[in-house]
Design a protein that fits this description.
mainly alpha; rod-shaped; 3 helices; 85 residues; 46% helix
Length: 85
C-alpha cells in the first residue's frame, strides 16, 4: 500500500500582489483599455450611428427645429431611446 503525501500549500500572497499570469501570457505590460478591441469597435459604431443619409438628416433637422432642439440633441434622443419624438 502506497502512502500519499500532501504537498504543503503555498504561503498566502499579500493583498497588494497581483495574481500570477495565465499560461501563454508574455509578461508584457497590460493593455490600455482605451486601445482595446472593444474600444475600437465602440468608436467605429458610434461614428457609424451618427452617419445618416441626406434625406433622413434633413427630416431630422426639420423635426428638431419644430421642437426647438438642435439636430444633435434630437439625434441623441433617437439614438439613446430608440424612438422618435
Amino acid at each position: 500500500m502506497r502512502i500519499r503525501r500532501r504537498h504543503p500549500s503555498p504561503p498566502p500572497l499579500p493583498e497588494s500582489a497581483a495574481p500570477p499570469p495565465r499560461p501563454g501570457h508574455n509578461n508584457g505590460p497590460p493593455l490600455d483599455p482605451e486601445e482595446s478591441w472593444r474600444g475600437f469597435v465602440w468608436r467605429k459604431k458610434v461614428k457609424q450611428a451618427w452617419k445618416a443619409p441626406r434625406e433622413i438628416a434633413l427630416r431630422r433637422l426639420a423635426r428638431a427645429e419644430e421642437l426647438g432642439m438642435t439636430y444633435r440633441e434630437y439625434t441623441l434622443e433617437i439614438l439613446e431611446r430608440g424612438r422618435y419624438l
